[in-house]
Amino acid sequence: MEPLRFPENDLFKGWGEPMRTEVAIEGLEIIQGAIPEGLEGTLYRNGADWQYPSKRNDDIFIDGEGMMHMFRFEGGQVSYRSRWVETARYKKQKEAKRQLFGRYRNRFTNDPEAGDTHMGTANTTAMFHAGHLYALKEDDHPYEVDPDTLETIGRTDLNGQITSTSFTAHPKVDPITNELLAFSYQARGDGSKDIVFYLFDEHGGKKNEIWFEMPYAACVHDFAITDEWIVFPFFPLIHDEEHANAGGTFYRWCPDEETHVALVPRYGTAADIRWFKGPTTSAGHMLNAHRDGSKIHLDVVLYEGNCFPFFPTPTGEHVPGVPPFLTRMTMDLTRNDGGFDKQRLLNVPCEMPRTDDRYQGRPYRHGYMIAARSADGSSGTGHLDLATGAFESWSPGPGDSVQECQFVPRTPDSAEGDGWLLVPVARVAQGRSDLVVLDALDLAAGPVATIKLPVRVRSTFHGCWVPAEAQRTGRYDYALSAA
After folding, report:
1. Cα(231)–Cα(288) distance, integer angstroms
2. For residue range 22-40, what is the model confidence (pLDDT) as tens digits?
3. What one-character DSSP code corresponds to residue 412?
4. Beta strands 218-219 and 447-452: pairing type?
5. For residues 283 and 290, what is the distance between their CA atoms, to the nearest angstrom?
6. What one-character DSSP code corresponds to residue 472?
7. 100-110: per-residue pLDDT in tens?
8. CA angle 220, 226, 230 (to 5 degrees)
Protein backbone atom coordinates (compact mmCIF):
# COMPACT_ATOMS: atom_id res chain seq x y z
CA MET A 1 0.00 0.00 0.00
CA GLU A 2 1.37 3.41 -0.96
CA PRO A 3 2.22 5.89 1.84
CA LEU A 4 -0.58 8.20 2.97
CA ARG A 5 0.29 11.84 2.47
CA PHE A 6 -1.75 14.99 1.86
CA PRO A 7 -0.85 16.96 -1.30
CA GLU A 8 1.05 20.23 -1.08
CA ASN A 9 -2.14 22.27 -1.15
CA ASP A 10 -2.95 25.35 0.94
CA LEU A 11 -6.35 23.79 1.63
CA PHE A 12 -4.65 21.32 3.98
CA LYS A 13 -2.26 23.73 5.71
CA GLY A 14 -2.50 26.05 8.69
CA TRP A 15 -5.99 26.26 10.13
CA GLY A 16 -7.21 24.00 7.33
CA GLU A 17 -4.93 21.13 8.34
CA PRO A 18 -7.26 18.15 8.85
CA MET A 19 -8.01 17.16 12.47
CA ARG A 20 -9.02 13.55 11.59
CA THR A 21 -10.04 12.83 15.17
CA GLU A 22 -13.07 12.56 17.45
CA VAL A 23 -13.07 14.48 20.74
CA ALA A 24 -15.06 14.40 23.98
CA ILE A 25 -14.46 17.00 26.71
CA GLU A 26 -16.55 17.45 29.84
CA GLY A 27 -16.58 20.77 31.70
CA LEU A 28 -14.94 23.19 29.29
CA GLU A 29 -13.01 26.03 30.93
CA ILE A 30 -14.90 29.34 31.02
CA ILE A 31 -12.07 31.87 30.83
CA GLN A 32 -14.17 35.03 30.84
CA GLY A 33 -17.62 35.94 32.16
CA ALA A 34 -20.25 33.35 32.96
CA ILE A 35 -22.89 31.33 31.12
CA PRO A 36 -26.14 33.35 31.18
CA GLU A 37 -28.85 32.01 33.45
CA GLY A 38 -31.42 30.04 31.48
CA LEU A 39 -29.08 29.20 28.59
CA GLU A 40 -29.77 25.46 28.61
CA GLY A 41 -29.63 23.27 25.54
CA THR A 42 -27.32 22.06 22.78
CA LEU A 43 -25.59 23.79 19.89
CA TYR A 44 -25.04 21.32 17.05
CA ARG A 45 -22.64 22.12 14.23
CA ASN A 46 -21.59 20.20 11.12
CA GLY A 47 -18.56 20.55 8.90
CA ALA A 48 -16.06 18.78 6.69
CA ASP A 49 -12.84 17.00 7.60
CA TRP A 50 -10.62 14.49 5.82
CA GLN A 51 -10.74 10.87 6.87
CA TYR A 52 -7.73 9.96 4.71
CA PRO A 53 -5.29 12.05 2.67
CA SER A 54 -6.59 13.10 -0.70
CA LYS A 55 -4.84 12.00 -3.86
CA ARG A 56 -5.83 15.16 -5.75
CA ASN A 57 -4.48 18.71 -5.79
CA ASP A 58 -7.76 20.28 -6.90
CA ASP A 59 -9.88 19.52 -3.80
CA ILE A 60 -12.18 22.27 -2.52
CA PHE A 61 -13.15 23.31 1.00
CA ILE A 62 -16.76 22.11 0.76
CA ASP A 63 -15.66 18.49 0.30
CA GLY A 64 -14.56 16.08 3.02
CA GLU A 65 -16.33 13.69 5.39
CA GLY A 66 -19.02 14.95 7.73
CA MET A 67 -17.94 15.75 11.30
CA MET A 68 -20.69 16.59 13.77
CA HIS A 69 -19.96 18.81 16.77
CA MET A 70 -22.04 19.51 19.86
CA PHE A 71 -21.77 22.00 22.72
CA ARG A 72 -24.13 21.08 25.55
CA PHE A 73 -25.05 23.87 27.98
CA GLU A 74 -26.25 22.44 31.27
CA GLY A 75 -26.24 23.92 34.79
CA GLY A 76 -23.78 26.67 33.93
CA GLN A 77 -21.27 24.28 32.38
CA VAL A 78 -20.52 23.37 28.75
CA SER A 79 -19.33 20.03 27.36
CA TYR A 80 -18.04 19.37 23.84
CA ARG A 81 -18.07 16.35 21.56
CA SER A 82 -17.16 15.75 17.91
CA ARG A 83 -17.81 12.59 15.94
CA TRP A 84 -17.65 11.37 12.34
CA VAL A 85 -20.89 10.83 10.48
CA GLU A 86 -20.45 7.24 9.39
CA THR A 87 -21.88 7.43 5.89
CA ALA A 88 -21.64 4.66 3.32
CA ARG A 89 -18.65 6.52 1.87
CA TYR A 90 -16.95 6.82 5.27
CA LYS A 91 -17.40 3.09 5.93
CA LYS A 92 -16.08 2.14 2.49
CA GLN A 93 -12.92 4.17 3.01
CA LYS A 94 -12.46 2.85 6.55
CA GLU A 95 -12.51 -0.66 5.11
CA ALA A 96 -10.04 0.25 2.35
CA LYS A 97 -7.85 2.32 4.72
CA ARG A 98 -7.46 5.08 2.13
CA GLN A 99 -9.28 7.79 0.18
CA LEU A 100 -11.45 6.30 -2.59
CA PHE A 101 -13.50 9.24 -3.80
CA GLY A 102 -12.27 11.77 -6.32
CA ARG A 103 -13.31 15.19 -7.49
CA TYR A 104 -16.14 16.92 -5.61
CA ARG A 105 -19.39 15.04 -6.36
CA ASN A 106 -17.95 13.61 -9.59
CA ARG A 107 -18.48 9.84 -9.46
CA PHE A 108 -16.54 9.42 -12.72
CA THR A 109 -13.29 10.32 -10.90
CA ASN A 110 -13.62 7.78 -8.08
CA ASP A 111 -11.26 4.89 -7.44
CA PRO A 112 -12.69 1.70 -9.00
CA GLU A 113 -12.81 0.16 -5.53
CA ALA A 114 -15.47 2.75 -4.56
CA GLY A 115 -17.89 0.91 -6.85
CA ASP A 116 -21.41 2.30 -6.67
CA THR A 117 -21.05 3.56 -3.08
CA HIS A 118 -22.93 6.84 -2.67
CA MET A 119 -20.65 9.92 -2.51
CA GLY A 120 -22.76 11.73 0.10
CA THR A 121 -20.65 13.12 2.95
CA ALA A 122 -23.36 14.41 5.35
CA ASN A 123 -21.04 17.37 6.03
CA THR A 124 -23.10 20.57 5.78
CA THR A 125 -25.65 21.11 8.53
CA ALA A 126 -27.41 19.66 11.56
CA MET A 127 -31.23 19.59 11.61
CA PHE A 128 -33.48 18.81 14.58
CA HIS A 129 -37.13 18.00 13.89
CA ALA A 130 -39.85 15.96 15.62
CA GLY A 131 -37.37 14.68 18.19
CA HIS A 132 -34.74 13.50 15.70
CA LEU A 133 -31.30 14.91 14.83
CA TYR A 134 -29.95 14.64 11.28
CA ALA A 135 -26.71 15.38 9.43
CA LEU A 136 -27.36 16.72 5.93
CA LYS A 137 -25.59 17.12 2.61
CA GLU A 138 -27.58 18.23 -0.44
CA ASP A 139 -26.65 15.34 -2.75
CA ASP A 140 -27.89 12.57 -0.44
CA HIS A 141 -30.63 11.60 1.99
CA PRO A 142 -30.30 12.61 5.66
CA TYR A 143 -28.30 10.58 8.15
CA GLU A 144 -29.91 10.31 11.57
CA VAL A 145 -27.55 10.91 14.49
CA ASP A 146 -28.01 10.24 18.21
CA PRO A 147 -28.54 13.68 19.85
CA ASP A 148 -26.60 12.71 23.01
CA THR A 149 -23.68 10.66 21.70
CA LEU A 150 -23.54 11.76 18.02
CA GLU A 151 -23.38 8.10 17.08
CA THR A 152 -24.63 7.56 13.52
CA ILE A 153 -27.98 5.75 13.47
CA GLY A 154 -28.21 5.51 9.70
CA ARG A 155 -29.33 6.91 6.38
CA THR A 156 -33.05 7.65 6.16
CA ASP A 157 -35.75 8.65 3.68
CA LEU A 158 -38.00 9.73 6.58
CA ASN A 159 -40.11 6.58 6.45
CA GLY A 160 -40.37 6.57 2.67
CA GLN A 161 -41.55 10.17 2.48
CA ILE A 162 -38.50 11.50 0.58
CA THR A 163 -39.28 10.44 -2.96
CA SER A 164 -36.33 12.27 -4.54
CA THR A 165 -32.74 11.03 -4.79
CA SER A 166 -31.50 13.70 -2.36
CA PHE A 167 -32.53 16.21 0.30
CA THR A 168 -31.46 19.79 0.96
CA ALA A 169 -28.70 20.81 3.36
CA HIS A 170 -30.63 24.04 4.09
CA PRO A 171 -34.00 23.01 5.52
CA LYS A 172 -36.11 25.50 7.47
CA VAL A 173 -37.59 24.26 10.72
CA ASP A 174 -40.27 26.77 11.71
CA PRO A 175 -39.97 26.92 15.53
CA ILE A 176 -43.42 28.51 15.84
CA THR A 177 -45.46 25.96 13.82
CA ASN A 178 -42.84 23.18 14.18
CA GLU A 179 -43.22 22.53 10.44
CA LEU A 180 -40.22 21.36 8.41
CA LEU A 181 -39.80 22.96 4.98
CA ALA A 182 -37.29 21.37 2.64
CA PHE A 183 -36.51 20.50 -0.99
CA SER A 184 -34.35 18.52 -3.36
CA TYR A 185 -32.76 19.79 -6.57
CA GLN A 186 -31.57 17.65 -9.48
CA ALA A 187 -34.09 15.52 -7.67
CA ARG A 188 -34.15 12.60 -10.11
CA GLY A 189 -30.37 12.35 -10.35
CA ASP A 190 -27.31 14.31 -11.47
CA GLY A 191 -28.12 16.66 -14.34
CA SER A 192 -31.91 16.50 -14.03
CA LYS A 193 -33.88 19.78 -14.00
CA ASP A 194 -36.33 18.36 -11.46
CA ILE A 195 -36.86 20.08 -8.14
CA VAL A 196 -39.32 19.22 -5.39
CA PHE A 197 -40.58 21.14 -2.36
CA TYR A 198 -41.55 19.23 0.79
CA LEU A 199 -43.62 20.38 3.76
CA PHE A 200 -43.75 18.20 6.89
CA ASP A 201 -45.91 18.70 9.99
CA GLU A 202 -44.73 18.87 13.61
CA HIS A 203 -44.79 15.07 13.92
CA GLY A 204 -42.74 14.51 10.74
CA GLY A 205 -45.67 13.60 8.48
CA LYS A 206 -45.61 14.97 4.91
CA LYS A 207 -48.24 17.68 4.29
CA ASN A 208 -47.32 18.83 0.79
CA GLU A 209 -45.05 17.86 -2.10
CA ILE A 210 -44.66 20.00 -5.23
CA TRP A 211 -42.56 18.92 -8.22
CA PHE A 212 -41.55 21.31 -11.01
CA GLU A 213 -38.65 21.99 -13.40
CA MET A 214 -35.74 24.40 -13.05
CA PRO A 215 -34.63 26.48 -16.06
CA TYR A 216 -31.33 24.55 -16.03
CA ALA A 217 -29.65 21.87 -13.87
CA ALA A 218 -28.65 24.41 -11.25
CA CYS A 219 -26.91 24.31 -7.89
CA VAL A 220 -29.65 25.33 -5.43
CA HIS A 221 -27.80 25.44 -2.13
CA ASP A 222 -30.39 27.43 -0.15
CA PHE A 223 -33.93 28.79 -0.36
CA ALA A 224 -36.21 31.02 1.72
CA ILE A 225 -39.74 30.88 3.06
CA THR A 226 -42.63 33.21 3.78
CA ASP A 227 -46.05 32.55 5.30
CA GLU A 228 -47.56 31.91 1.85
CA TRP A 229 -44.66 31.48 -0.61
CA ILE A 230 -41.45 29.50 -0.88
CA VAL A 231 -38.67 31.40 -2.69
CA PHE A 232 -36.34 29.42 -4.96
CA PRO A 233 -33.59 31.45 -6.69
CA PHE A 234 -31.79 29.73 -9.56
CA PHE A 235 -28.26 30.91 -10.37
CA PRO A 236 -26.22 29.66 -13.37
CA LEU A 237 -23.88 27.26 -11.62
CA ILE A 238 -24.93 24.39 -13.88
CA HIS A 239 -24.13 20.68 -14.00
CA ASP A 240 -23.16 19.19 -17.35
CA GLU A 241 -23.02 15.39 -17.27
CA GLU A 242 -20.79 15.12 -20.36
CA HIS A 243 -18.26 17.53 -18.82
CA ALA A 244 -18.29 15.57 -15.55
CA ASN A 245 -17.93 12.27 -17.39
CA ALA A 246 -14.73 13.61 -18.94
CA GLY A 247 -13.34 14.24 -15.44
CA GLY A 248 -14.35 17.90 -15.16
CA THR A 249 -15.93 19.82 -12.31
CA PHE A 250 -19.45 18.97 -11.17
CA TYR A 251 -20.59 22.55 -11.85
CA ARG A 252 -19.63 25.20 -14.39
CA TRP A 253 -20.28 28.93 -14.15
CA CYS A 254 -22.41 30.01 -17.14
CA PRO A 255 -22.40 33.84 -17.20
CA ASP A 256 -24.61 34.02 -20.29
CA GLU A 257 -27.56 32.55 -18.38
CA GLU A 258 -29.95 34.73 -16.36
CA THR A 259 -30.97 34.48 -12.72
CA HIS A 260 -34.44 33.00 -12.26
CA VAL A 261 -36.70 33.05 -9.20
CA ALA A 262 -39.67 30.75 -8.61
CA LEU A 263 -42.31 31.57 -6.00
CA VAL A 264 -43.89 28.27 -4.97
CA PRO A 265 -47.08 28.24 -2.87
CA ARG A 266 -46.38 26.92 0.63
CA TYR A 267 -49.72 25.09 0.76
CA GLY A 268 -50.67 25.07 -2.96
CA THR A 269 -49.75 23.23 -6.16
CA ALA A 270 -47.33 23.57 -9.07
CA ALA A 271 -50.06 25.27 -11.11
CA ASP A 272 -49.74 28.31 -8.81
CA ILE A 273 -45.98 28.88 -9.25
CA ARG A 274 -44.92 32.40 -10.31
CA TRP A 275 -41.67 33.06 -12.21
CA PHE A 276 -39.31 36.05 -12.34
CA LYS A 277 -35.89 36.61 -13.92
CA GLY A 278 -33.08 39.14 -14.12
CA PRO A 279 -29.33 39.70 -14.65
CA THR A 280 -26.73 37.02 -13.95
CA THR A 281 -25.80 36.75 -10.27
CA SER A 282 -25.10 33.99 -7.75
CA ALA A 283 -25.51 33.28 -4.05
CA GLY A 284 -25.09 30.55 -1.53
CA HIS A 285 -27.08 31.76 1.45
CA MET A 286 -30.36 33.52 2.20
CA LEU A 287 -30.89 35.68 5.29
CA ASN A 288 -34.69 35.71 5.22
CA ALA A 289 -37.78 36.46 3.13
CA HIS A 290 -41.16 37.93 3.93
CA ARG A 291 -44.37 39.02 2.28
CA ASP A 292 -45.29 42.72 2.13
CA GLY A 293 -48.68 43.02 0.45
CA SER A 294 -48.22 41.98 -3.17
CA LYS A 295 -44.41 42.04 -2.81
CA ILE A 296 -42.14 39.20 -1.75
CA HIS A 297 -38.78 40.39 -0.39
CA LEU A 298 -35.80 38.03 -0.46
CA ASP A 299 -32.76 39.17 1.55
CA VAL A 300 -29.76 37.29 0.22
CA VAL A 301 -25.96 37.51 0.30
CA LEU A 302 -25.59 38.25 -3.40
CA TYR A 303 -22.54 38.01 -5.65
CA GLU A 304 -22.57 40.02 -8.87
CA GLY A 305 -20.65 37.16 -10.45
CA ASN A 306 -19.52 33.65 -9.49
CA CYS A 307 -19.71 32.82 -5.77
CA PHE A 308 -17.54 29.71 -6.34
CA PRO A 309 -14.59 30.78 -8.55
CA PHE A 310 -13.14 27.24 -8.42
CA PHE A 311 -15.95 26.23 -10.81
CA PRO A 312 -14.85 27.40 -14.30
CA THR A 313 -16.87 28.62 -17.28
CA PRO A 314 -17.72 26.29 -20.20
CA THR A 315 -14.61 27.64 -21.96
CA GLY A 316 -12.43 26.72 -18.99
CA GLU A 317 -11.90 30.21 -17.55
CA HIS A 318 -11.74 30.73 -13.79
CA VAL A 319 -13.51 34.05 -13.25
CA PRO A 320 -12.08 36.00 -10.27
CA GLY A 321 -14.25 36.05 -7.18
CA VAL A 322 -16.35 39.10 -6.30
CA PRO A 323 -17.37 40.33 -2.83
CA PRO A 324 -20.81 39.36 -1.52
CA PHE A 325 -23.22 42.00 -0.24
CA LEU A 326 -26.52 41.65 1.56
CA THR A 327 -29.11 42.54 -1.08
CA ARG A 328 -32.90 42.64 -1.20
CA MET A 329 -34.51 41.08 -4.26
CA THR A 330 -38.17 42.07 -4.60
CA MET A 331 -40.70 40.14 -6.66
CA ASP A 332 -44.03 41.97 -7.11
CA LEU A 333 -46.93 39.62 -7.77
CA THR A 334 -48.80 42.44 -9.55
CA ARG A 335 -45.90 43.12 -11.92
CA ASN A 336 -46.47 41.73 -15.41
CA ASP A 337 -43.00 41.95 -16.98
CA GLY A 338 -41.52 39.00 -15.03
CA GLY A 339 -38.64 41.02 -13.60
CA PHE A 340 -37.47 41.77 -10.07
CA ASP A 341 -35.80 44.71 -8.31
CA LYS A 342 -32.56 44.76 -6.30
CA GLN A 343 -31.55 46.97 -3.38
CA ARG A 344 -28.29 46.68 -1.44
CA LEU A 345 -28.95 46.57 2.30
CA LEU A 346 -25.37 46.61 3.61
CA ASN A 347 -22.15 47.91 2.07
CA VAL A 348 -19.94 45.63 4.15
CA PRO A 349 -19.06 42.31 2.47
CA CYS A 350 -20.57 39.46 4.46
CA GLU A 351 -21.55 35.79 4.42
CA MET A 352 -23.29 33.06 6.46
CA PRO A 353 -26.31 35.23 7.41
CA ARG A 354 -28.66 34.22 10.24
CA THR A 355 -31.81 35.59 11.87
CA ASP A 356 -33.71 35.00 15.05
CA ASP A 357 -35.16 31.72 13.74
CA ARG A 358 -38.60 32.50 15.16
CA TYR A 359 -38.88 35.20 12.48
CA GLN A 360 -37.92 33.06 9.48
CA GLY A 361 -40.47 33.87 6.76
CA ARG A 362 -42.01 36.70 8.79
CA PRO A 363 -41.43 40.47 8.85
CA TYR A 364 -38.24 40.94 10.86
CA ARG A 365 -35.71 43.52 12.00
CA HIS A 366 -32.41 41.89 12.97
CA GLY A 367 -29.86 40.08 10.82
CA TYR A 368 -26.51 38.56 11.79
CA MET A 369 -23.58 37.53 9.61
CA ILE A 370 -19.84 37.00 9.25
CA ALA A 371 -18.49 40.45 8.45
CA ALA A 372 -15.70 41.29 6.00
CA ARG A 373 -12.52 39.26 6.19
CA SER A 374 -9.37 41.37 6.61
CA ALA A 375 -6.05 40.97 4.84
CA ASP A 376 -4.68 39.04 7.85
CA GLY A 377 -7.54 36.54 7.59
CA SER A 378 -9.48 37.86 10.57
CA SER A 379 -13.24 38.30 10.51
CA GLY A 380 -16.02 39.31 12.88
CA THR A 381 -19.68 38.80 13.68
CA GLY A 382 -21.97 41.56 12.43
CA HIS A 383 -25.46 42.76 13.36
CA LEU A 384 -27.64 44.77 10.99
CA ASP A 385 -30.74 46.58 12.28
CA LEU A 386 -32.90 46.66 9.14
CA ALA A 387 -35.24 49.21 10.70
CA THR A 388 -32.53 51.85 11.25
CA GLY A 389 -29.72 50.67 8.98
CA ALA A 390 -27.35 50.64 11.95
CA PHE A 391 -24.53 48.10 11.74
CA GLU A 392 -22.20 46.94 14.50
CA SER A 393 -19.71 44.12 14.75
CA TRP A 394 -17.47 42.23 17.14
CA SER A 395 -14.09 40.84 16.15
CA PRO A 396 -12.05 38.33 18.17
CA GLY A 397 -8.81 40.11 17.26
CA PRO A 398 -6.04 40.27 14.64
CA GLY A 399 -5.56 37.01 12.75
CA ASP A 400 -8.51 35.29 14.43
CA SER A 401 -11.80 34.53 12.72
CA VAL A 402 -15.39 33.53 13.42
CA GLN A 403 -17.69 30.87 12.07
CA GLU A 404 -21.44 31.18 11.49
CA CYS A 405 -23.33 32.39 14.56
CA GLN A 406 -26.46 30.90 16.14
CA PHE A 407 -29.16 33.06 17.74
CA VAL A 408 -30.77 31.82 20.98
CA PRO A 409 -33.76 33.72 22.45
CA ARG A 410 -33.38 34.81 26.07
CA THR A 411 -36.81 33.31 26.79
CA PRO A 412 -39.19 31.40 24.46
CA ASP A 413 -41.33 34.54 23.97
CA SER A 414 -38.72 37.31 24.27
CA ALA A 415 -38.72 40.16 21.76
CA GLU A 416 -36.97 39.67 18.42
CA GLY A 417 -33.21 39.89 18.90
CA ASP A 418 -33.41 39.71 22.70
CA GLY A 419 -31.05 36.86 23.35
CA TRP A 420 -27.61 35.48 22.68
CA LEU A 421 -25.33 34.75 19.75
CA LEU A 422 -23.19 31.62 20.04
CA VAL A 423 -20.07 32.07 17.90
CA PRO A 424 -17.27 29.54 17.29
CA VAL A 425 -13.94 31.41 17.14
CA ALA A 426 -10.70 30.30 15.52
CA ARG A 427 -7.72 31.27 17.70
CA VAL A 428 -5.39 30.75 14.77
CA ALA A 429 -2.03 31.54 16.38
CA GLN A 430 -2.87 29.29 19.35
CA GLY A 431 -4.10 26.42 17.18
CA ARG A 432 -7.34 26.03 19.14
CA SER A 433 -10.88 27.41 19.37
CA ASP A 434 -13.22 29.30 21.65
CA LEU A 435 -16.99 29.46 21.77
CA VAL A 436 -18.18 32.94 22.74
CA VAL A 437 -21.58 34.11 23.92
CA LEU A 438 -22.54 37.61 22.74
CA ASP A 439 -25.51 39.79 23.62
CA ALA A 440 -27.31 39.81 20.26
CA LEU A 441 -28.37 43.45 20.66
CA ASP A 442 -25.00 44.71 21.96
CA LEU A 443 -22.16 43.07 20.06
CA ALA A 444 -19.84 45.99 20.72
CA ALA A 445 -19.86 45.16 24.44
CA GLY A 446 -17.93 42.00 23.67
CA PRO A 447 -18.46 38.48 24.99
CA VAL A 448 -20.77 37.76 27.90
CA ALA A 449 -18.83 34.51 28.24
CA THR A 450 -15.81 32.95 26.57
CA ILE A 451 -15.56 29.16 26.61
CA LYS A 452 -12.11 27.77 25.88
CA LEU A 453 -11.44 24.64 23.86
CA PRO A 454 -8.00 23.03 23.97
CA VAL A 455 -8.58 21.74 20.40
CA ARG A 456 -9.49 23.21 17.01
CA VAL A 457 -13.06 23.23 15.76
CA ARG A 458 -11.51 23.19 12.31
CA SER A 459 -14.36 23.89 9.93
CA THR A 460 -18.10 23.94 10.46
CA PHE A 461 -20.62 25.27 7.99
CA HIS A 462 -24.08 25.32 9.59
CA GLY A 463 -25.99 24.06 12.59
CA CYS A 464 -28.90 24.54 14.96
CA TRP A 465 -29.75 25.20 18.61
CA VAL A 466 -31.98 22.75 20.48
CA PRO A 467 -33.29 24.02 23.83
CA ALA A 468 -33.19 21.52 26.68
CA GLU A 469 -36.99 21.44 26.74
CA ALA A 470 -37.15 20.64 22.99
CA GLN A 471 -34.60 17.87 23.55
CA ARG A 472 -37.05 16.30 26.02
CA THR A 473 -40.31 16.87 24.11
CA GLY A 474 -39.18 16.71 20.48
CA ARG A 475 -40.73 20.09 19.62
CA TYR A 476 -39.89 23.77 19.94
CA ASP A 477 -42.05 25.78 22.32
CA TYR A 478 -41.25 29.25 21.00
CA ALA A 479 -43.63 32.17 20.57
CA LEU A 480 -43.52 35.53 18.80
CA SER A 481 -43.33 38.49 21.14
CA ALA A 482 -46.51 40.54 21.53
CA ALA A 483 -44.37 43.67 21.83
Report:
1. 10
2. 999 999 999 999 999 999 9
3. T
4. unpaired
5. 18
6. H
7. 999 999 999 99
8. 35
